[in-house]
Amino acid sequence: GLHKDSLCFYGFYLKIPDYRVPKSCRLVDSEWSTVFDIFACLLAGDDEEVYWCCGHLADRSIVVMDGAGKYYHVGKGTEKGTRKRYIASNLPTPGEEDFDTAIKKLKAEAGQRAAENARKRQQDEEAKRQRRLKEIREALPYRMGMKWGLKLGERIIVPPKYRKILPPVGGYCAFEENACQWGVMALDGKVVVEARYQEVNIEPDGTVHLTVIPGKVKTIQL
């Protein structure tokens, strides 16, 4: 029998380490996949059938084959089940899409979904960050030993690891990482300008003057 530690649950399917793959099983990516990329699996909410996972798509959905040689696109669905959609068969009926055509379309759709999900995650993370920046807008530099960080009251926002941090201007601080190497950070410690300038001057409207060498100043807008 199988040891319980050899079974892995991935949210909507249970991976079973059985690699006795039927020869009829087609691969989602035949160029890069190997026989060990295919495995038996059980789908959440479907206890009647054991499937073969033929590969993963960009949005983390999978393609499976049942015992009759029919292929399904499967993704996370409801809390107790999956989204399972028939896409092709080893013995297609007249007028039905073949496996390769169906997979090509699925890859394009999954790529678009993955890109959209990534954009949404990035937007959500940025929204959370902006809320946090509002909460810590009163943060101030503090010194511990020879190093500087940022604090909001007794709460440490940025640990003391810089040679110097100047008071915030419009939500940003000039900081010195090494001698005469200045950059700009947001109040949450995110570095927005790398510390490679001899001097940094931040204006309230977000204009930053970066001294590369004496007499040579670069101006950017945050």
Describe the structure.
Keywords: Coiled coil. Residues 108-139 form a coiled coil. This protein is α+β, with helices and mostly antiparallel strands. It folds into two domains: 4-131, no CATH class; 140-221, no CATH class. It is 17% helix and 45% strand. The longest helix is centred in the middle third of the chain and has 37 residues, at 99-135. It is elongated, with a radius of gyration of 27 Å. The mean pLDDT is 90.
What's the helix and strand layout?
Elements: E1 8-9, E2 13-16, E3 39-43, E4 46-56, E5 62-65, E6 70-76, E7 82-89, H1 99-135, E8 140-144, E9 147-152, E10 155-162, E11 164-165, E12 172-178, E13 181-186, E14 191-197, E15 199-202, E16 207-213, E17 216-221
Antiparallel strand pairs: 1-2, 2-3, 3-4, 4-5, 5-6, 6-7, 8-9, 9-10, 11-12, 12-13, 13-14, 15-16, 16-17
Coiled coil: 108-139
Keywords: Coiled coil
Question: Could you say how many structural domains there are in total?
Answer: 2
How would a crystallographer describe the biggest sheet?
7 strands, antiparallel
- What is the mean pLDDT? 90
- Provide the spatial order of strands within the biggest beta sheet: 1-2-3-4-5-6-7
In percent, how much strand structure appears in the residues? 35-45%
Structural class: alpha+beta
In N-to-C order, the SSE pattern is EEEEEEEHEEEEEEEEEE
Q: Which segments are poorly predicted (pLDDT under 50) over 5 or more consecutive residues?
A: none
Total helical elements: 1
Q: How many angstroms separate the termini?
A: 61 Å
> Which geometry do the CA atoms define?
elongated
The number of strands is 17
Radius of gyration: 27 Å
> How much helicity do the residues have?
10-25%
